[in-house]
Design goal:
Rossmann fold, globular, 41% helix, 8-stranded mixed β-sheet, two-stranded parallel ribbon, 335 residues, binds nicotinamide-adenine-dinucleotide
């Protein structure tokens, strides 16, 4: 029996796949290896680590020597391809993480976000029905809270005010999940991730971008004049939540997966500076359209029903990221 992981070459997907393989599961990984948000060479490198094969080159279909990891270069918008892949395996669960991620780019390219995140997600949900796969866990986002003013964000809050096309696609995913549960009885668990960071992270996200710019001696953009707060969640804490959700299917639930500690952007930057031993030059800019100044997760539901327990402090998490970044980019001295 296997777990189908969509977006498995992505930041979170590769970490989830690693954890599943370590538990002895068979992983059927699907990714379209696009260069949309960042260069796909990083996705290939994540796959090399999963396979423990430094010479691996991207192929349409590939498997590890023990046949525990299957890698498919495929697009979730291709319904037939998904079906063909699923027929070759006994899939017990789906972990749907594949998506066009990120708020800001969705303002520029709303169509592709709708196409992948809504129609692609629909295909994945339909696959569960066709192949009689009983349980599915899918990625939602803290961005669905959009204009909600009250903090911390709770799953019971009304979320009818999304601020970006990306947020709207994630909200649509949650609604579609409810339909697929109601119509076909599939167990559907949605996870609202709060700003995930860590080694092998996304170059289009703040931590990577700031680290890269500080090392290069370039100024970093600091939005809302620096008055930003985020519930930053370390990637292995998120993975722990995803695995628990896969292990404990509920008929239809949505969980916040955050760190439950909101950090100021200034603290976040200070941690990076400390790890690099170098000060950042900051350009203060207004709040970006689509962005929210503050996110904060109430994770009591995930704690209670999933046993989710984030453990990593921002200091530990940023230190681990910077160490990985320097090793990956072969940087001896960041100063
Ligand atoms: N990283 C975060 O802070 C965060 C926060 C909230 C929600 N999320 C959600 O978590 C999930 C994973 O995000 P991530 O940070 O790992 O991003 P990521 O971009 O690194 O991973 C997404 C993966 O999906 C793949 N993909 C995109 N379109 C595809 C398609 N049409 N067919 C097949 N594969 C496709 C990409 O190639 C990529 O490898 C996404 O659903 C994202 O919306 C992430």
């Amino acid at each position: 029996m296997g777990v189908l992981v969509t977006g498995g070459a992505g930041f979170i997907g590769s970490w989830v796949s690693k954890a599943l393989l370590e538990q002895g599961e068979e992983v059927i990984l699907i990714d379209d290896f696009n260069d949309f948000n960042y260069k796909s060479t990083l996705k290939d490198d994540r796959i090399r680590i999963l396979l423990n094969e430094s010479k691996y080159r991207r192929k349409k279909r590939y498997h590890s020597s023990d046949k525990k990891l299957w890698i498919y270069h495929a697009d979730i918008r291709d319904e037939k391809k998904l079906r063909d892949i699923a027929k070759q395996h006994k899939i017990e669960k789906i972990c749907h993480l594949g998506a066009r991620a990120g708020v800001r780019r969705s303002l520029q390219y709303p169509k592709v976000y709708y196409d992948v995140n809504i129609f692609g997600t629909l295909n994945v949900f339909q696959l569960a029905v066709q192949q009689k796969i009983p349980s599915l866990v899918y990625a939602s986002s803290s961005s669905v809270y959009g204009g909600v003013k009250e903090l911390p964000f709770k799953e019971t809050m009304k979320i009818d005010n999304p601020l970006s096309p990306y947020a709207a696609t994630k909200k649509a995913g949650e609604e579609m999940a409810a339909v697929f549960h109601n119509l076909y009885g599939i167990n559907m668990t949605g996870l609202r991730f709060f700003t995930v960071y860590g080694p092998w992270g996304r170059p289009d996200m703040a931590l990577y971008e700031f680290t890269e710019k500080i090392i290069a001696g370039k100024p970093i953009p600091v939005y809302n004049q620096g008055d930003m707060q985020r519930d930053f969640t370390y990637v292995t804490d998120i993975v722990q939540g995803v695995i628990k959700a896969l292990e404990k299917p509920y008929p239809y639930e949505i969980f916040n997966l955050g760190n439950a500690r909101t950090e100021k952007l200034s603290t976040f930057i200070a941690c990076i500076e400390k790890e690099l031993g170098k000060k950042a030059e900051k350009i203060l800019l207004p709040l970006q359209p689509g962005d929210v100044p503050k996110t904060s997760a109430d994770i009591s539901k995930a704690r209670k029903l999933l046993g989710y327990q984030p453990r990593t402090t921002i200091e530990q998490g940023i230190a681990a990221f910077v160490e990985w970044y320097k090793e990956y980019h072969k940087i001896k001295d960041a100063r």
